[in-house]
Amino acid sequence: KQEVTQIPAALSVPEGENLVLNCSFTDSAIYNLQWFRQDPGKGLTSLLLIQSSQREQTSGRLNASLDKSSGRSTLYIAASQPGDSATYLCAPYTGNQFYFGTGTSLTVIP
Amino acid sequence: DAGVIQSPRHEVTEMGQEVTLRCKPISGHNSLFWYRQTMMRGLELLIYFNNNVPIDDSGMPEDRFSAKMPNASFSTLKIQPSEPRDSAVYFCASKILSGGNTGELFFGEGSRLTVL
Fold it and tell me: Strands B74-79 and B19-24: what pairing?
């Protein structure tokens, strides 16, 4: 069974800092990996989808990388803003289901 | 475009009552997932359907839980009888089941269930 670990569990940074969220998974046989954000009391919003054949995917201030062979993905957030405060989850997809980590809770302090 | 639509958004019921949660996936999506989220256990997959057919229901906690997808635009998750430990947020999500399995997953806003 796929095990997904996200480190750190919680992170607090001052506004403007660049930061990296880490995701590791045990089974490298994935089709893709998706990063989501979840605001309190809300559903999950898709941020980036990175295919197994890709190394990186970018959207605005977000950049996700994928090293499938080592079972790792990172989400880089540039110039963080208070509006980035949320929980971030990664989910590798094995072709039948998505496996979710427990997330990193991010707080960006103005 | 409308996203995944879930109803009700909030449900408060008493132990023993039947609860039905509803989901309308994004038009054209043919893979549908039901998840449950709690503080203790995080996000858990309950069941998923491909082309309206249940593929894996191993995450359904007990026989009290059942799910159906009578057509491509509607799915239900039913709990009968409900218990306080069923209190959680239930999410529905959908994606396109393509040949390359590369489709993006989209979530609804969730149904927050409280069983008293």
Answer: antiparallel
